[in-house]
Amino acid sequence: MQAQVIEGDGVRLRPYRDTDVADITAGCDDPLTQRFLPALPSPYTEATARWWVDEAAPAVWADGGMAYAVADPDSDRLLGAVGIDRLVPMRRQAEIGYWTAPWARGRGVATAAVRALTGHAFATGLVRLELFTHGENAASQRVALAAGYRHEGVRRAASPQRGGGRCDSIAWVRLADDPPGPAPRLLPDLPPDGLTDGVVALRPTGPDDVDLMYRLHTRPEVVANRVPPETPTRPEVERRCRMAASNWLVGTVADLVVVDVATGEAGGGLALRYDEPLIRQAMLGASMLPEWRGRGLLTRGVRLMVDWAFDTAGVARLWAGCRPENVAPQRVLEEAGFRREGIQRGRLPGPDGTRVDSVLYALLPTDRPDPPGRP
Prior knowledge:
Blueprint: E1 6-7, E2 12-14, H1 21-28, H2 31-36, H3 46-62, E3 66-71, E4 78-88, E5 93-100, H4 109-123, E6 128-134, H5 138-146, E7 150-160, E8 166-175, E9 195-196, E10 200-204, H6 210-217, H7 220-223, H8 234-242, H9 244-250, E11 253-260, E12 266-276, E13 281-288, H10 297-311, E14 317-322, H11 327-335, E15 339-349, E16 355-363
Parallel strand pairs: 5-6, 13-14
Antiparallel strand pairs: 1-2, 2-3, 3-4, 4-5, 6-8, 7-8, 9-10, 10-11, 11-12, 12-13, 14-16, 15-16
Helix pairs in contact: 1-3, 6-8
GO molecular function, one term: protein N-terminal-serine acetyltransferase activity
Keywords: Transferase
Pfam families: Acetyltransf_3
C-alpha cells in the first residue's frame, strides 16, 4: 500500500520525515504517552524515533497497514501520530491507534486524525475498524466516541502494563455503514460547572475522591445494600474512582459527589445506573456520611440528579430500592417525589446465604414535586 497525504479537519496526515525525529522523541517520551502506551521504549530516545521513521513505519506500510504523522497543515509541525495495523484481510478488518503530542492536546487533533484515517480506510475497502483504550484513559475514549466508534465491550487483561502485570482494554468499533457523526451516548456530560441549586452541588467522581468513597461505601448500612453485602477493599474503591469517568462514557453508571456549596466539602455520593436502556429506565443509588445527615443535603442532591436524568439524559423512569429497616433513605426518596410501589421479597442476598426483602420506589417525570414547566 502506498502512502498518500490525507487532509482532515485542521490536520494533515502525511508520511514521516527526518525532520519529525525530535518531535517524535518528545511526544513518545512524554509521561502521559508512556503511561497509556506501555509498549513504547522508556526512555524513548532520538535513536528510537529515527528507527521508527527509517524502518518501522515503512514496515507497517509493507505489511498492508498505514503509519501517518499527524501534522499542522500550516506549519507542518508534527502534532501526533495515527495508524492502522493488525489487518485481517478475510474479514476486511483492522485496528486503528493514535497518540497526540503534549503541545497539541485539547485541540481536537486526535479526533480529526482518527476521523480522517477512518474514512480513508473504509474508502480503500475495510469494513470494520477496532480501537482499544486503557480503562483510565478517558480522553482517548472521548476521541473514540467523537470519531463514531461504539463501545463493544472489555477485553480482560489484554494489555501488558509497564513494570509488569496486565490490564483490561476497552474495545470500540466502527463499521463502514455506521451513521456519520459521533457515536450516541446513554449518559451525557454534566454542564461544565456541574449541577447546583445554590446549596448543594454535584460533580463527577474522580481519583481524588477515594477517601470519601471508602468512608461512604464501608458504612454498615451501605454495605447491607451492596450485592453481595460485602465490605469493599480500599483498592476496589480506588479502582472505582479511577474508572468513574470511563464508566460514565460507556454508559454504565454516572457516579457523582455531593458537595456543600457553603463549605466546599464533599460528604455524599449519588449513582445513576442505566440498567434497562431499551425501556429508558435507570436505578438511583445514594449515600451520605452520618455527620451530614438531617440537613436535607442529600434530598437536594437527589432532586438535582432526578432533573438531569429526566430532562437531559432522557430517562423515562427512575427506581430505587433499600432494605425495609433502612428508613432514612426512604424518607429522602419520598421527599424527592418517589412513590413506594411495594416489597420485593427476598430480592437481595443477605449474610450467610440468606435473602432479604427490598422496598421498591419509583419516580416518573410527572411525579416530581416541582417539575419544569409547571405553573
